[in-house]
Design goal:
With 274 residues, the chain is an alpha/beta fold. It has 2 domains: 105 residues, 60s Ribosomal Protein L30, Chain: A, CATH 3.30.1330; 158 residues, SPOUT methyltransferase, trefoil knot domain (Alpha/beta knot, 3-Layer(aba) Sandwich), CATH 3.40.1280. Strands 8-7-6-10-9-11 form a 6-stranded parallel beta sheet, sandwiched between helices. The chain has a 5-stranded mixed beta sheet with strand order 1-4-3-5-2, sandwiched between helices. Strand 6, helix 8 and strand 7 form a beta-alpha-beta unit. The longest helix has 18 residues. The chain is elongated, with a radius of gyration of 20 Å.
Length: 274
């Protein structure tokens, strides 16, 4: 059976709601929903069992693609899952899209957050992002954490919204497969992890030991600090170990997402060999 999106008027209240959810963290928190864009990431969320409320399609792009396209495929999958599919004109779709080149599909999904205490009890390292401001880095780290076998990711301090559009695009299906926790205050979150028996490991630009020389095979929480300033001295002081990635040449530091991935996969290597 051919599935066709149901056209929506530009004045439909759903459009205004989409704009708020795409652009405002507060709106996402209040609604308990987030927006994910692109047929491939949406298909990955559907395959991961995400609770999608609605799917929106650019009707101009819809008319230009064939049945084998990712756009047509994700519409069929959404319809089969009982998700309402709505159609928007190209101009309206562009007005709610967070990207410069909209990919023709966006969806509303349930914003699911796991308590820090629950994440702490799951087997595997916990990744803690402290004041990470770049959503692309945040999403990449969530995806790397899942790939490296982490128990979950904890966002604390002034970190970006893990369910913001850019972070979700970078994390893709990992944002719903991997437990995500949030804490506005850093110290209580770290206390929670420490009280569960986890050792806190700080990543620092200098003064630490190499990842391979640190025992990461046990119950650890790995902390990554802000892109601009790293972890504060106060946070570092609460950690039982410090890691510095050895680098050659004149390179002083690397991207937070790259640094985090290096440490996470070293932890995965150690766990495999334990």
């Amino acid at each position: 059976m051919v599935v066709e999106p149901t056209p929506l008027s530009a004045n439909n209240p759903r459009i205004a709601s989409l704009r708020r959810l795409s652009g405002r963290r507060k709106a996402r928190l209040e609604a308990g929903r987030f927006v994910i864009e692109g047929p491939v990431p949406i298909a990955e969320l559907l395959a991961a069992g995400a609770d999608l409320d609605e799917l929106y399609v650019d009707l101009d792009q819809w008319a230009q693609v064939d049945d084998r396209s990712p756009l047509r495929s994700v519409v069929r999958d959404a319809d089969a899952a009982g998700v309402p599919v709505w159609g928007l004109t190209a101009s309206v779709f562009a007005s709610v899209s967070d990207t410069n080149s909209p990919q023709g599909a966006l969806a509303l999904a349930l914003r699911t957050v796991t308590p820090i205490s629950d994440v702490a009890q799951i087997d595997g390292p916990v990744l803690v992002l402290v004041d990470i401001s770049d959503p692309g880095n945040a999403g990449t780290l969530v995806r790397a954490a899942e790939a490296a076998g982490c128990a979950g990711v904890v966002f604390v301090g002034s970190s970006t919204d893990p369910f913001g559009p850019k972070a979700v695009r970078a994390a893709a299906g990992s944002i719903v497969r991997l437990p995500i926790a949030e804490g506005s205050e850093v110290s209580p979150a770290l206390d929670e992890l420490r009280s569960s028996g986890r050792s806190l490991v700080a990543t620092v630009v200098d003064g630490g030991v190499a990842p391979e020389a640190t025992d990461l095979s046990g119950s650890v929480a790995i902390l990554i600090g802000s892109e601009a300033h790293g972890l504060s001295a106060e946070v570092i002081a609460t950690c039982s170990a410090k890691i510095t990635i050895p680098m050659q040449s004149a390179v002083e530091s690397i991207n937070a997402a790259v640094a985090g991935a290096v440490v996470l996969f070293e932890a995965a290597r150690q766990r495999r060999n334990a």
